[in-house]
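DM from R.C. (forwarded with permission)

"hey, sorry to bug you on a friday — could you get me a structure for this? deadline for the figure draft is monday and I only need the backbone to look sensible"
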Amino acid sequence: MKYQSLEFLTTKELADLLRIKERRVYDLASSGDVPCSRATGKLLFPRKAIDQWLVENGSGFSALRRKERSLVMVGSHDPLLEWALRESRSGLASLFDCSEDGLERFKEGDAIGAGLHLYTPKGKQWNVPMVAAELDLRRAVLVEWAWRERGFIVPAGNPKQIVTIADLKGLRVAARQKGAGTQRLFDHLTFEAEMLPKDFKMTEPQRSEMDAALKVAEGQADVAFGLETIARQLHLDFIPVIRERYDLLVCRKGWFDPQFQALMEFTREPKFAQRAEELGGYDISCQWDVRFNGE
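My reply, with the result:
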């Protein structure tokens, strides 16, 4: 093994061995979950004691499992999911920012699940390649939530006569923050169309689908690359561009928690399907289908 000959491991070396971040190693040390020494004034981890610790706990990730995940859904915002979390009275909270943020928080054990819509051009896949590349998936499953219609949100009447992405040249485009699945997809599509960032007048990054669309509604942007359901809510016009798959990455333990089961049961009620129809731009026909099984 890489560190087998070392008598002591540094924080960085132990983090590398366990495939976790250094700050997590500090958490384990401060809580007494992992054997360590401070004799030299800095944290050192006796290799033999670490080996024994791994054997006793079954795997190097056992201590991570001791960190209870919060009953919160993170990742990219989805209007239908947000409504279902509230209406189901599941007890699950939400902290939606963006897909990459959700993936990171899930990896750190900070949430029961994460909503993702991350596009990989190679193979034209959604979410699976990013999840498979980033996570120890023995305790996670990726399931479909819905297919969503994404496209150009424009003022009523489409005054700029936007039809394709090439028509955005010179226009004010509502930008999203770095790490947002929406911005990643927009950047890919513009690259495919051989367009450069200088071809647009991008606004300051907006941290939600609604905020981006509001830039159009308030006349501060000519177009936003957003969801059909958001355009409907703001009575704006919508030009479809692509169907995207929004998935939920869920930890195995959390899947069987009463809170998550309550959410699942709620989605089987007729009023859930009715709400999806009312919001528009959703296809929930394959909801809960497993897209990647970590086991």
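R.C.: lifesaver. The longest strand covers residues 140-154.
me: no worries. Residues 69-295 form a domain with the D-Maltodextrin-Binding Protein; domain 2 fold (CATH 3.40.190.290).
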